[in-house]
Amino acid sequence: MRQVYFYNTLKRDKQEFHPIHDPHVGMYVCGPTVYGDPHLGHARSAITFDLIFRLLKYVGYKVRYVRNITDVGHLVGDADSGNDKIAEKAKAEQLEPMEVAQYYANRYHEFMAKMGVLSPSIEPLASGHIIEQIDLAKKILDAGFAYVSEGSVYFDVKKYAETYKYHILSGRNLDDMVSGGRSDDYMSEKHFVADFALWKKAAPEHIMRWPSPWSDGFPGWHAECSAMSAKYLGREFDIHGGGMDLMFPHHECEIAQTTAAYGTSGARWWIHNNMITINGKKMGKSYNNFITLEQFFKGDHQLLPHAYSPMTIRFFILQAHYRSTLDFSAEALDAAEKGLDRLSKAFASIEKIIVSENSTLDGAPAILFDKMVDAICDDVNSPVAISYMFDAVKQINSVISGESKASAQDVESFRKMRDDVFSTLLGLQTLSEDNSADKLSAAMDVILDLRLKARSAKDWTTSDFIRDSLAKAGIKIKDSKTGSDWEID
């Protein structure tokens, strides 16, 4: 089994990964709050942890991947004030809250599937685990780290900080929160500005409510992940993931809740993907600067010159390391589209290679394959793996053009790059696997055949006309000793 390394936010260091119960791995990832269509930011988180899921399975681990859906408790203010995001959407559209949640959960699944994101092992709903969240609040109350105030239950941050280190994940200073802490509608109920809700008493107009020992109400946003990760993965498990924007307050509160209730911090590895930005500003619904995945796929947005395929979006995301900021631009998407096309064409041509007994590649394809896998094992460094793929493209094209010779072992290494790395690990598809690309490929076969007949008849006028016309359309013809091929220029 290959060694895998992940950057652990909790330790602020890259560490060799060893699961608690080898070969079993438990991974919990914060999923979407389903009150709107998924956008590029959602795609980045989903693709990041899809890549980690694929990697762990590829090297031989048996993974239980839990990704939740938040369908209650996430308030508009991302804290303890305002209405529930889903309930507010339901009021605006005159629907039941669960209609809203179901519709957008279905949309999320639809778009993730198009981008090759594998389904998790378990996908629990917050609304389906109210009992577990009430039980969590009871445990924290019994441990002395929470209090009841006017029918709501709040986590007592000051009391917790006397025994444990608060902000262990984000490294923030509790004193800074006192001087610069937020205020909200429920500040009068709290003992301290940083205290957060484990259970909220529902106002009369609040649609979503359940009975509890303290009031008719609903769980605090942070409670669901502590309750559901413990239920499905145990009180201690291997990996907890999510976007960097969730590090504080969401994940910090999770660690405090879990520690207070069970005496452990939950996950041993905390992994966070960085943000998608537009003009240097985080993309998100709260900033009203997001582009939905549907808009990308249809080209239906003022910042998009045309539509982009789901695989282009996935490839664009994988070209940057998951811990680095990724800035959106149409130019970057166009470059990703051309790069993916180049890889697709090269991998599709592998089966055209004529095997030679005397290779001139000196085993380079096998070395490149190992480098690709090693890069992904090293904190899922997809951009480095992709850079090695482009090195392989040069080798494949040199063999196709007759400049180099490949042995059967070389060809098998090229296939492993395509099947193991490009498809299995990175979750990408070649253009030949896309229906529209199949149609284009079939049409180009006809055109190249007509051009070949023209060249055979020494009809250079027709041959040059086809070549030049395709060039104007952005399709480049490549002539070699073995025939003609094409690529999108």
Task: Kindly report how far apart the N and C termini lie.
Answer: 40 Å
Find the structural class using helix and strand composition.
Answer: alpha/beta
Helix content: 40-55%
| Strand residue percentage | 5-15%
Largest sheet: 4 strands, parallel
Shape: elongated
Strand tally, please?
Answer: 15
Rg: 27 Å
Widest sheet, order of strands: 4-3-9-10
Mean pLDDT: 91
Contiguous runs where pLDDT drops below 50 for at least 5 residues? 179-183
What is the overall number of helices? 16
Assembly type of the chains comes to: single chain
Key structural traits:
4-stranded antiparallel beta sheet, 4-stranded parallel beta sheet, 489 residues, alpha/beta, 15 strands
Report on this model:
- This protein is an alpha/beta fold and 489 residues long.
- The chain has helices at residues 40-58, 85-93, 97-114, 130-142, 157-163, 174-180, 223-233, 247-262, 293-298, 310-318, 330-348, 364-377, 382-400, 408-425, 435-456, 460-472, and strands at residues 5-8, 13-16, 24-29, 62-67, 146-149, 152-155, 196-201, 217-219, 237-243, 267-273, 276-278, 281-282, 326-328, 475-480, 483-488.
- The strands form five sheets. The chain has a four-stranded parallel beta sheet with strand order 4-3-9-10, with helices on both faces. It has a four-stranded antiparallel beta sheet with strand order 5-6-7-8. Strands 12-11-13 form a three-stranded mixed beta sheet.
- Helix 4 crosses helix 7, helix 4 (130-142) crosses helix 8 and helix 12 runs parallel beside helix 14.
- The model is unreliable at 179-183 (pLDDT under 50).
